[in-house]
Specification:
19% of the residues lie in helices and 40% in strands. The protein is of the alpha+beta class and 288 residues long. The protein has 2 domains: 129 residues, Diaminopimelate Epimerase, Chain A, domain 1 (Roll), CATH 3.10.310.10; 145 residues, Diaminopimelate Epimerase, Chain A, domain 1, CATH 3.10.310.
Length: 288
């Protein structure tokens, strides 16, 4: 029986049972893809990250939801870095993670103990919504999707829609986002036409109270009805809301019911710094 070290980390929080759980499994070399997918399904957390050392604080990383491999995952990258720093497997203050689809990702440990990730900034394009008076009875505009579909799936109507690696909906106030009770099965069928966006939707609003931006992230298209903390989503939130609010640095809150996650962002050119904490909740072994 093979035995692999296993860690479960709550990311983007400094409290257990908050933030977003990620399973981290260091390996000497990657297992067959179908085996890693089966392990992720067994773990049944938002993402399982598999990491392989390449020497000199460089690690290969791959991420799996319970149902699919994904091209980028922020919280599981933060969790992986936390494991490596806490188990003394890093010889400097920066780790490089090599990925197949998202280039090199860099994670540094700050003086206050938080971790800072350097990720690509995602571009987004605003969808031109029609004047409600001009919408035909069937709800169609631009001939490609239904306004009614978004309102029906979200059980509320966003004021803006943006297209990118995720679909992004902006609402008029933060309480609306916090109180959303969407139909995730309906969300799984939504798309704004961008590759990979099907069923992956960010809902956002400007807060102005304790945070700059409040969000929730629904990803039934990736096998996750709602994700508790989504670093990759903030690669799209950060450049968009930094422009809207005219602020390079944002304090963001992902308002998953009963958990919640604090994600600080700083826009630097075509890169986004994602800053947060993590905490160990399970340390053990995976037996196969």
């Amino acid at each position: 029986m093979a035995q692999y070290r296993f860690f479960q980390i709550d990311a983007f929080t400094n409290e257990p049972l908050k933030g977003n759980p990620a399973a981290i499994i260091p390996l000497d070399s990657f297992l067959p893809t179908e085996k890693m997918q089966a392990i992720a399904a067994e773990n049944n957390v938002a993402e399982t990250a598999f990491i392989v050392s390449k020497g000199n604080d460089v690690w290969d990383i791959r991420w799996f939801t319970p149902s699919v491999e994904v091209p980028l995952c922020g919280h599981a990258t933060l969790a992986s870095a936390y494991v490596l720093f806490e188990t003394d497997q890093v010889h400097s203050q920066q780790i490089t993670f090599q990925t197949t689809h998202s280039g090199n990702l860099f994670v540094s440990r700050l003086e206050d103990g938080r971790l800072e990730m350097d990720f690509p900034a995602y571009k987004s394009e605003k969808i031109n919504l029609p004047n409600p008076k001009d919408i035909p009875e069937d709800g169609v505009w631009s001939g490609s999707f239904l306004l009614a579909d978004f309102t029906s799936a979200l059980r509320d109507t966003p004021s803006e829609l943006w297209s990118g690696p995720f679909m992004l909906a902006i609402f008029s106030d933060a309480e609306t986002v916090r109180n959303l009770k969407p139909d995730t099965k309906a969300i799984s069928k939504l798309s704004l036409g961008h590759e990979g966006d099907t069923g992956n939707l960010i809902c956002t609003a400007i807060d102005g109270a304790t945070h700059d931006v409040v969000s929730r992230v629904f990803c039934p298209g990736s096998g996750i009805p709602e994700d508790p903390a989504t670093g990759s989503a903030h690669c799209m939130i950060a450049p968009l809301f930094s422009k809207i609010l005219d602020k390079q640095s944002l304090n963001c809150f992902q308002a998953f019911p009963g958990r919640g996650a604090d994600i600080a962002t700083r826009l630097e050119g075509d890169r986004v710094k994602l800053i947060g904490s993590a905490v160990l909740v399970i340390d053990g072994h995976f037996n196969l």
